[in-house]
Amino acid sequence: MNNMFIYLPAGILLVPLLAFAVILFFGKQLNAIADRISIAAMGTAFLLSMCLFSHTSPMGAHLQAKPIINSFSWINLNGVDLQMGFLIDQLSAFMCCVVTGLATIVLVYSMFYMDGDSMYRRYFGFMCFFCFAMLGIVLSSNLLMTYVFWELVGLGSYFLIGFWFYKPVVSKDHHYQELKASYATGIDERFLSPAHAQKKAFVMNRIGDFGFAIGIGLFATTILAVAGSAEYKALNFTNGPLNFDTLYLAKQKGIFEHMTLLGLSGNSLLTIAGIFTFMGAMGKSAQFPLHTWLPDAMQGPTTGSSIIHAATMVAAGVYMTARISPLLTEGSLFFVAIIGGITAFLAATMALVQWDIKAVLAYSTISQLGYMMIGLGAGAYSAGIAHLFTHAIFKCMLFLCAGSVIHACHHLQDMNRMGGLKNKMPVTYYSMLIGTLAISGVPFFSGFFSKDAILAGSLAKAMLVGGVHWIPFLLGIVTAGLTTFYMFRLIFMTFHGEPRDKEIYDHAHESPLLATVPLTILATLCLGLWWGGHLIGGDIIGIPGLTRDVTVYELKDGKAEAKIESTGWLNALMVSPVSAQATVAPGEKLSEAEMKHEAEHEVVHHSAHLMATGLSVLMLATGLFMAWSMYIKKSISPSNLRKNPVLKGLYDLFSQLWYFDRIYQDGIVPAWKTMNRAFWKFDANVLDKVCIDGWSFVLKSIATVAKLVDNWFVDKCVDFFGWATSFVGVFARILQYGKIQYYVCVTFGVVAFVLLWLMLAMP
Amino acid sequence: MEWLSGGPNVLSNYLILSGFLFACGIFAMVSRRNAVGILMGVELILNATGINFVAFSRFGHDKIDGSHLDGQIFTLFIIILAAAEAVVALALVLAVFQTHKTIALNEVDEMQM
Q1: Choosing among A740, A745, A748, A759, which should be mutated to test the B contact, i.e. which has the most B CBs within 10 A?
Q2: Mean pLDDT, range A232-252, rounded to an integer
């Protein structure tokens, strides 16, 4: 049975890659059916993912669910074993389903949206490549493999954002200038084009990856530092230092307490490592301060954005944070939460004042990602993950609807010129409405279930720990109201009221089936009932089979007791690895103290849940009311509000995106370039002149000395031998007289001498 | 004066004669410029050995049964060999003359001209 957990993930991972390769190499011949190939591939991957998920979901039934890891040793340097492999648990299996399912739906939609594009098949190829990379992150068993596929996902995103790379900069693009709003502000138009956007996205990702690499390095160093000790051997690590199971086990056994590096040690070092690793997620998931690339990324095709910037790539950061969450200390978790909170709030404020449909959705994505981080940072692991999934689906759908609207309005993206499209595009309207209800957290929709859980978790954390932990919760609550406001503003401006541009309105029409069917499918998935969602406690609307029973500890008369409670299946499945690593075997009872601890937490959680739900519904209603009065009833006019100096100041701040883009573009980039130039000058003038040329001078002098020695000593030695030979020859020559008579004399003399000697010697 | 008591017809006289001839031959070889003169010296030496052989055939101690003529037969061979050798030597002289353009052997002291 174990083989299944090797071949299924391998299939899921490699089928999209195969499709990419086929489109890459045989694209010309297969021009027309490139789309069908990619859809077939992603569909197959989706079926495989469903198969995988059905096999893993029994695992979540009890508390101790260990992920199944199959990996092989990729590089083995001197005992440092870096592996590649698959980690299968409920989370990764379900994530695969979401990624592949959304990809399939989006690709079907893309057949409509990208129709007629000159580089049609290139788009489908890149989508398959991107999905391959994303699935690599999802299935990876190992921080190193995650890093590799992290980069590949960044590459896929680069390709898709800069898909229309030949488009000129927006300030020079006539088409864009015609279609934009008259008061458009915010992003500097001299530096906005698909080419710029792709570069910006990739570079900002890389900045995050720098931190990520440092974090990985810190974790690996610690494990390797203790690698020789008896303690380590006793743990019986079978996999390399960067495998997730190794890391979890190390954290559990307290190996990280022994870390020391540069004067820091133990907990503080672990916090720093966690923060650095989270920097990768900050880059990938567009958290503050690395969030500016996402709005620029709207230069790419809307369908590409719907996969990348709604559902998958930006979710990769959240996924990775979830994977390393057992390793994060309280400090780094708080860092995650606060960054998430700031991001959520900032992005929501920016979304309030946008004229472009896609821009609103982009900032909305950033904001919702902030929410997920709030959830993970507050320890509400399953809430953050749940929001990841629900957000993926409704945001993907919102982007597709936006694409439908944009297509119908002939590439117009300015909401100020739309209006009254409700009657003309009913399917799009209702899908978008459902998505908006979901994102606002209206009860009975999927978003309510996950968002509510996040806010509850955050509030519970704040109530338990207090102090500075209130900030993420407060930011989250305010953002809930803002979210409702700007999303309904979008709906009202686009679909309601009188059409503001007669021509656009006349030409608008509903998109064909190829577009509306995907929208409908996604809209159905946005309803709360599929997610085992229920209102407050118990299941009011819960389809049997979608709820599971979990053991919960309750405080009765000061003693803790176990109780069986039903909760949504997603909640039950997404067991945090921390609790999964708990030293409790299924069926075993926790100790008294632990049970009491759990029960006390439960009490706080319950009251927090009630309070959070109430507050979020309140904020929702406020936001909806504001949007309605501004854009439907028109009792408050936006332009009147702008006359107020304070509000005008805020409006400028928000529409200039809190000046982040300006700071980066006009401040940091030129400073960096200056630093680059300074380094180059140093390199050319100092390093090259002093080191390279100086070194060559040294070498030349040595060579000259060697030449002198060679000429005056070595050569003389050789000459001496020649002279010696000729000197000896002067004497040896005498024997070679050349005259015959001389030879005869010598011969005769010698013979005579020998004879004489013999005669005298003989007795 | 023991060697005089044997009379005039005694071996040693003949050996002295051949020795004298040998010395003359050596002298001729050593003191001649002319190649042909040197060859005459060689002839003298060879004849000296002939006389030696004849003397030993007449006066030698170890006679082979019934034969006193071995030395004389040998001398005949030597005379013929001397002739053949003179032919070869003259051929050599001819060759030397062709390369060195002279047969004064005191000038022929290098392999090349």
Answers
A1: A740
A2: 69
Query: For A159-180, what is the mean pLDDT?
Result: 84
Structural domain count of chain B: 1
Residues of B in contact with A738 (CB under 8 A): 108-110
Tabulate helix, strand, coil % of chain B (nearest 5).
70, 5, 25
Q: Is residue B111 part of a domain?
A: no
Chain B residues touching residue A755 (CB < 8 angstroms): none
The total of other beta-carbon atoms located within 10 Å of residue A731's CB is 8
Separation in Å, CA A479 to CA A287, A293, A295: 15, 21, 18
For residue A289, is the peptide bond before it cis, meaning its omega torsion is within 30 degrees of 0? yes
Candidates B44, B100, B109, B111, partner chain A, best to mutate (most A CBs within 10 A)? B109
Residue A130 pLDDT greater than 90, yes or no? yes
Query: Within a 10 A sphere around the Cβ of A407, how many other Cβ atoms?
Result: 19
Containing A342, the helix (H) or strand (E) segment is helix A330-351
- Say if residue A263 is exposed, middle or buried (CB neighbours under 10 Å; 0-12, 13-18, 19+): exposed
B105 has a chain A CB within 8 A of its CB: yes
The residue behind tokens 């999927």 is A446
What is the DSSP-derived secondary structure letter of residue A188?
Answer: -
Q: φ, ψ for residue A677 (rounded to 5)? A: -65, -40
Residue pointed to by tokens 């070092």 = A269
Q: Give the helix ranges, DSSP H, for A27-80.
A: 34-56
The answer to whether position B40 is within a domain reads yes
- The number of beta carbons lying within 10 Å of the beta carbon of residue A587 is 8
Query: CA-to-CA distance for A219 and A457, rounded, in angstroms?
Result: 28
Give the model confidence (pLDDT) of A462-495 as tens digits: 888 778 888 999 999 999 999 999 999 999 888 8
In a domain? residue B108: no
Q: How far is A727 from chain B (nearest CA, A)?
A: 20
Amino acid A581: pLDDT? 40
pTM (2 d.p.): 0.76
B-chain residues near A750 (CB < 8 A): none
| Chain B contact present for A745, CB below 8 A | yes
Is the predicted pLDDT of residue B57 greater than 80, yes or no? yes
Of B30, B38, B109, the CB nearest to A737: B109
The alpha carbon of residue A704 is apart from the nearest alpha carbon of chain B, in Å, by 46
C-alpha span between A401 and A217 (Å, rounded): 42
State how far residue B66 is from chain A, nearest Cα, in angstroms: 32
For residues A76 and A70, the answer to whether their CB atoms sit within 8 Å is no
Q: Which of B50, B30, B28, B35 is nearest to B88 (CA)?
A: B35
Quote the DSSP letter at residue A540: S
What CATH number does residue B41 fall under? 1.10.287.3510
| B110 found inside a domain | no
How far, CA to CA in Å, does A704 sit from each of A346, A510, A693, A713, B59? Answer: 69, 86, 16, 14, 87
Tell me A414's DSSP state: B
* Tokens linked to A94: 């379900």
CB atoms within 10 A of CB A602: 18
pLDDT in tens, A538-571: 344 444 555 565 666 666 666 666 666 666 666 6
What is the domain extent for residue B44? 7-100
In the predicted model, what is the mean pLDDT of residues B49-66?
A: 78
Gap between the Cα atoms of A564 and A568, Å rounded? 13
